[in-house]
Amino acid sequence: MPVMRVRGVDLVYEIMGDRGSWVTVTPGGRRGMAGERELGRMIAEAGFRVLLHDRRNTGASGIALTGESESMEQAEDLLALMQGLRTGPAFVAGSSSGARMSLLLAKHHPEAVKALLLWRVTGGPYAAHRLAYNYYEQFLEAVGSGGIDAICDMDHFAAMIEANPANEETLRTMGAAAFTAGMQRWLESFRKDADYPVAGISPGDMRQMTHPAIVIPGNDRIHPAAGAQAAHRLLPYSIYREVLTHPVDIDVDFDGWAAKTGSLASHFIDFLRACDRAL
Predict the structure, then answer these.
(1) How many Å apart are CA 90 and CA 49, to the nearest integer?
(2) Do 98 and 11 fall into the same domain?
(3) 205 plus 271 within the same structural domain
(4) How much is the pLDDT for 31?
(5) Under a CB-based contact definition with an 8 Å cutoff, are residues 272 and 135 in contact?
(6) Does the pLDDT of residue 279 top 90, yes or no?
(7) How would residue 1 be classed by pLDDT, with cut points 50, 70 and 90?
């Protein structure tokens, strides 16, 4: 798998397809690109060039806890990766935390984004509380009680070390104090913006966006339909489509969405083709 060093961190990436407009696809949570490889393959088969990558702190890419906001750091990383690959402006697709990253990229670098494809948008008080723990608080608790050894043993970072053994050296060189400071800084940034209707970005900022967008709601506790409905209302040039309409009482409906990858891809491909004709 190719690797590019951008902004001080190694990013593992993959390109599917060799023609057509560029589409970046980013999964949610701290999941690596493998989580959306099948979606990327379907979009590429429809005549687009798809860029997948493991964001910093995911998959086989490097670990870095710099900056004020994890999502903003990842947005800047994606921009640098696109520039390194000379993609030019691209269609930017993201799910959950990937949607949050995509919106921040569009806000701060509108010239780099042709249109937004957003699904399973995060919003609401439950998500704000739960994700603060999932992303940051659990790691702060672990490093506080067991230092970097405890972090290396946690499922997420153990998987990153298995995928890229250099990540263990990165963590041990960073040390407990720097790890704690970075996670605490990101936690505070996340909490500051988590209570907006769409977590991570203010309604005023979303109303200012002029990109075409498609918004597809989630169906679980962390991705309630209300978050996507808010995104659709706030984004002035968005359309709203549905894939899973029955709410489920679990945090994340991974199985449900995996079974509907084809339906999701169909909505996105129709949108991409319509945008290509209009742009």
Answers:
(1) 10
(2) yes
(3) yes
(4) 94
(5) no
(6) no
(7) confident
